[in-house]
Every structure is written in structure tokens, then in C-alpha cells.
Amino acid sequence: xxxxxxxxxxxxxxxxxxxxxxxxxxxxRLIDRDTLxxxxxxxEWQALDRQIIELDLAGVRPDPSMPPPLPPAAPPTxxxxxxxxxxxxxxxxxxxxxxxxxxxxxIVVVALSVPMAGxxxxxxLPAYRDYTVRAKTHASVYGAATAIEGMVDAHxxxxxxxxxxxxxxxxxxxxxxxxxxxxxxxxxxAGGQCAFEFTLGGIDxxxxxxxxxxxxxxxxxxxxxxxxxxxxFRPTACxxxx
Length: 242
What we know:
The protein is an alpha+beta fold. It is 32% helix and 17% strand.
């Protein structure tokens, strides 16, 4: 039995829990798809959204009558500088006339920094958008693909042939439930290797309609560089070799 842990925004690490207990907490809205989870064998903490299939959460719906997880506690307010002593009133100083040298330098620095800020924004905003799309694609598709690879390998070991769509009807239904606009098909490629391919949807306009193919090479593992999904939205290991 796998022991699961999750990160609570208020309490830190919580666990161990069974898969049934994790499903109950998801239903009760104590955890959500963004909650970080871990169990022995995972290389790092991962968003719950990547473990939908392993935890069999596709058919579990959060109870709308329950409150969502608490936000992180606000840090205590701190004060800088010295407070005036009790009962002592500070007297206002007469404002100086004209601009000091420091004020002039500050104005020049601000004036020069405005164009630079615009240039940095033009570079940073597209990069940040690519990062968020890559994170969504990784969480929603790559996490599911990792579990599917094991299922395909198990089918081949049991039946001696690649699974088709009918053989994987259960997993296709789970994908349709968790990612309604994304489709996955199963079969083999021209060389006879088992394969499955996602057609992405409902993630972002920059990747919706793109394909991501996973091909088995037996004992050598799986190749995830196929399809026309742009390399910048894939994990490094899944980018085509130049």
C-alpha cells in the first residue's frame, strides 16, 4: 500500500495517508489539484493534478458545500525605523527650497529607467507566458503519460501486442473526464513500436490542437519527442534532438 503525503498551506507536510484517504480529502476540499503531493518512488513533490490517474480521482468531484483549502497565513507586520516616544510630538521641519543634488540624480535615474523597464517587460512577459503554458502542459499531460506508459508496457507483457483504443477505453474515459478537450489514441507506428498520441485542447491557444506522441522502444524506454508540439512547451527530455 502506498503512503501519500501532501503539503498543507497552513500546517506544512501532512501524512502518511492511503489513496482512499487522499480521495476523501479531495472530495472534502481539504486538498485541490494544485496541492503538492509525494509518495516513495516520486523524484520530487508534484501537483496533485499530475497524479489524477494514479489516485483514481477522475470521477471524484469536490463537495461544493465545503470550504476550499485555507490560504497561507499572513506574515506578522514589521516596522522599520524608530517610533516616537510616548507623549512626544515631533515638530515639522521647514521644507527646503529647491531640489537637492540627490533629488536631481534620482529624477535622472527614474527617467532613464522607464525605457529600460519597457524593454525588460517586452522580454520577460512572453517568457513568463511560455513558462506557465509549459507548466500546464507538463502537469496535465506529461504526468498522465508517465502512468499510461506503464499500462501499455503491462498490456504488451500480458497479451504480446500493442493495445488499441478499445483495449484502453478505461484510461481514455479518465482522460476525457479530467481533460475534456484533450484526446488520446493508441496503436503503433510504422516501425511496429507501440505508441499513443495526445491532441491537446483546453490548455492555451498556443498549444491547443498540437499533437504529442509517445513511442515505446522496449527495454530502451519511451521516446516522447514525437508530434508537432513546439519544443519550448515540452520537458527537456522530450525535446527533439537537433
